[in-house]
Amino acid sequence: MPKKTKKPAKKPTRKIVKRPKRSVFGLKLHHASFLALCLLAIGWGLIIASGQTPKKSSADGCVVSLILVNSCRPWLGAASDNYPSPYASGSDTKSQILGHEARIGRQLDIVHTYHPVGNNSLSSTDLYFATRANTYLFANWKPAAHWADAGGGTSTAEQAVNAGIDKMAKSIGAIAPKQIFLSVHHEPENDTSSGGTCKSYKGSSGSAAQYKAMWSNVEDRFKNVDHVTNVVWVMDYMNYPPWLCVVDQLYPGDNLVDWVMFNGYGNGSDSWTNQVGPFYNKMSTDHPGKPLGIVEWAYAGGNNYSGYFDQVRAALDNNTYPLLRAYMVYDSRDQGSDTGSNRRVAYTDAGAYSQNQMDHYIGLANDPHLIDGGVVTSVPIGVLGGTGSSGPIGNPCAALGITCDSATICNTGQSGTAETPCVALPPASTRDSASTNNCTADCGLVAKYAIPFINFLAAMVGVVVTISIVIGGIQYTTSRDN
Q: pTM, whole model, 2 decimals?
């Protein structure tokens, strides 16, 4: 009988489980993700192409321009020293400033410090306040004892000063994008030896022409050699009548100065109006469009401390000097003496602490016109710009760090309040050159139609990306479970 052959055993078959297709809106997951990324790139590209820059805000509806002008109110600042315990925890500058803030019950907007010749870098105290949120540093800095040495020449002395200038530039540049206010050799009038219309001079630092050359060299090295651009340049005057004869000759030029600031000291029976008014009128006339500020002010030499503080507050409340966008008190002894010409806001000339006197200054420091969310004191037209106002042609808002508004072009968002240069025009306006604030056409259309569309597109991109990730994750988990 023939042998029976065994049939080959059947190979076990695997049950094939069909995984559901990972898809979004009919597209495979990786296709949907790729599409989402493309849309995201397009959205960001459109935002960049629109020329809009982020809005810098100090409070709802307010902006801080690229030269640090607050569109809604002036800044409050101070230099403070010589307060003993318990009014300050130490004699160092940081402790003294923090003590000043504790006494007035609020944070300063500007902290004022001083750098003598040879001090060519920001101190740890400078860095603390310069990098603190909602605070700006104002540094007074002297690059050289003799202005001719800082003129940018090739002599050994000039090259040594240039090295010091570069050191300070790099120190300031290291905290970018945070900006600081910087003055080059503050109050130069009484240090000038010649160059004005004065009958005689007191100083030995150099001529007015040498001062201007020093300033030009410093700013040029900052910008073009060290590439430091986070400086707001401030011309700092004494505002002392005997030296008005050299004020004009010392001015570096509107193209090199962002702010003009000056002192407002009162003595004896002096009034705030008499001390500030004449120089304010001269600066606002000679340099229209420049923001002005009081760089140092205090009272001494009499018994009218509280009255002087109240006069400052009254002028602020009445908007007597609308171009003044900073008030920085000099809260320190004069010439290091506890008695006689004592400029500390809480001390009398006799060196006695006066809480009543301090209370008058506290009232000024917390006046609604000096706090966010208080009474709005609109910045005059054109003052937000300065040397930093030059922006792209056709985009007057970009250089100011704000967005356009379809109702009042380049408005800050305050419901039709004209805060910026391009105002009271039809809802279509742009800067007509790179360096002026005149407006002629087209910004309003961008604000009204393009920006809302870009915002909508960006939101849709976010929705697509989110759905892609969520649905993809669910389907991937389901496929693993099966």
A: 0.72
